Amino acid sequence: MDHEGTPFGRYRLIDLLGRGGMGEVWRAYDTETQRVVAVKVLPPNLASDSTFVQRFRREALAAAGLSDPHVIPIHHFGEIDGRLYVDMRLITGRDLHSIIADGAMDPARAVTIIEQVAAALHDAHRIGLVHRDVKPSNILVTPNDFAYLIDFGIAAASGDTRMTGTGSVIGTWAYMAPERLNSGQNDPRSDTYALACVLHECLTGSQPYPGNSIEQQIGGHLGLPAPRPSALRRDLPVQLDGVIAIGMAKKPEQRYSTPTEMAAAARAAITQPTRLPPPPPRDTDPGPSDSHTIAIPTGPPRNYYPSNPQGSVSNTDPTQYQQLAPAGGPDVSAGRPGGQLPPPPSAGPARPASNPSPNKRRRNIILASSIAAALAVIGLVAALVLLPGDKSAPTAVAPQANSGPLTGTYTLAFGQSIGISGKPEPNQEPPGNETWKLRSVCGAKGCVATAARSSGSFKHPASLVFDDINGRWIAVTLDTERCNNQDIEEWHWIYLLPRPDGSMAGEWIDDSVQCYSKRSVTFTRTGDADLAGLPDPAALPARVASPALGLRGFYRSRVTTASGQPKLADQDFSVDTFCLRGGDRCLSRFVLTDLTDHQLFIFANNAWTENSEEDVPCPAGGTSHVRMTGVFPLPKPAADPITTLSGHGMEDVSGSTCKGGPYDQVFNRIRD
């Protein structure tokens, strides 16, 4: 891939993907992490506008406060050469608007996508953010039906009823709740209304109140009854009519209390469905029972927000998700049974194909894996780059044995062992290679991979489980190792980042109270693997995010004696935390900024404990054997990041005239 482009700090801006009200979105190459990302940059003419600058910063902070996997995380944000920027992940996918344009969706598939969007909204509402522009073009769906809610740039604090700085309403008329139209009221229930509108559109292919003018759409939201999906599709369960009616209730207090409650109701509606009988003949009067309740005309749907087929950058609606090329690839309109995990990304949605020829089948696999999308999360008009499709191609591809983003046989190339100081460690195993087999799958809760060593003999675990966390594949495990002639508990932390050549590179860290080793590692795929002996990652329980993960960044430590006197000079530490998949145990590594030493705190049962011992020189002469035992409770309420961590401990000193005793220690966060 060509990474030449316009220099912008650590980035190379390769090409412009979209332009919105708050800035431009570029496909860019990050020279530090060696990955292709989406970078949003504030236009020069807005950089001097304090209102725009404040909003830009608010967007970045809002996105940083969201942790649900269906909200795209940001990598970095800040200022370069006087211009604010946000660095985000590039995602493979297609927006829901273009998917619906292919036709109404299977109910199971529609509900699965709505469930994921509801989870993202619930996470935003939890911290007081209202999206205010939930619509199909702001929902990105990957080839394995993993959904992302994008464009949190117009998110506002709950209760904020203001318009934009120019007096424009934030949102899209076709999905706007009545209270926003007649009173300006803005709270999470408005997002629930919009999500119900999106569900209706997924099921029928038509917006709830389609019309050729804003007045028609506003009139529908304010005065017409909620539409009935089963009136447009006789094969839909009538219970879905009730879900839409409650989700689109005119009064906010009559709606579902949360978007996840609405999604659960939709799932229940298709689990035990009741369907309408076939409609009467076309020349038969349907009777008055339908004439006053169907609020949706039956004309051609989906002609109100056309995509941009010419490949140019759009300068229109700042929240519209513009398409850079005609949508192509295989039809993905069918769904899957409720509760079934989506198939791996390279396989496409799982459903039967009608006897496709081998050549057509291969073409579908290539197309599904080649769809590239650049997304923008926070006030961004993103664009999807899609390859032309073959409309005659079969509508499905069966999952392949080696499907998934991290599946196959890999060569692991390990670098030299490095100590805490960053210098090579003596008497360690030299650099070398191992062969591993990996098996991965992606589902509604993210991507996970199981791994097992086939050959090699480094002193570390022979099997691992990786999770894709914010763009990094991370594995954490514990075992017993020999260190300083003792059998001790050792933590192993491995992280990997994708590289432009398709390999994965990162570090393999082995850490314990007394022994430490870090090696660079590169995973290079060499071919398919026999996966029969690997555990099925889809059968594993979901990873649990521990509150201990909030302990990260740089902290200043102050240690005082029981009488309040300083025991040591203040010290600065860099702190990172990693946890076992169950979230029940974590390791927080406190590394002195001068890289001369580090401390390990183990998190379990809502508290960190320090339990270490070592031999150190005694200032009065001789050598002291020092044992440190401390307890640091999880702050209440738990925060992310944790700004202050306080605890109490005991220092036991023997072998010299130096004295120990009780101590108090406080870590105050000083920066990211």
UniProtKB/TrEMBL annotation:
PROSITE patterns: PROTEIN_KINASE_ATP (PS00107), PROTEIN_KINASE_DOM (PS50011), PROTEIN_KINASE_ST (PS00108). The keyword rRNA-binding does not apply. Residues 11-270 form the Protein kinase domain. Keywords: ATP-binding, Cell membrane, Kinase, Membrane, Nucleotide-binding, Serine/threonine-protein kinase, Transferase, Transmembrane, Transmembrane helix. One of its GO terms (biological process) is regulation of primary metabolic process. The chain crosses the membrane at residues 365-387. ATP binds at K40. Residues 305-323 have a biased composition (Polar residues). GO terms for molecular function: ATP binding; protein serine/threonine kinase activity. It is an enzyme of class 2 (transferase). It holds the Pfam family Pkinase. Its EC number is 2.7.11.1. It comes from the Bacteria. Residues 348-358 have a biased composition (Low complexity). PANTHER family: MITOGEN-ACTIVATED PROTEIN KINASE KINASE KINASE 20-RELATED (PTHR43289), SERINE_THREONINE-PROTEIN KINASE NEKL-3 (PTHR43289:SF6). This is non-specific serine/threonine protein kinase. It comes from Mycobacterium kiyosense. The lineage of its organism: Bacteria, Bacillati, Actinomycetota, Actinomycetes, Mycobacteriales.
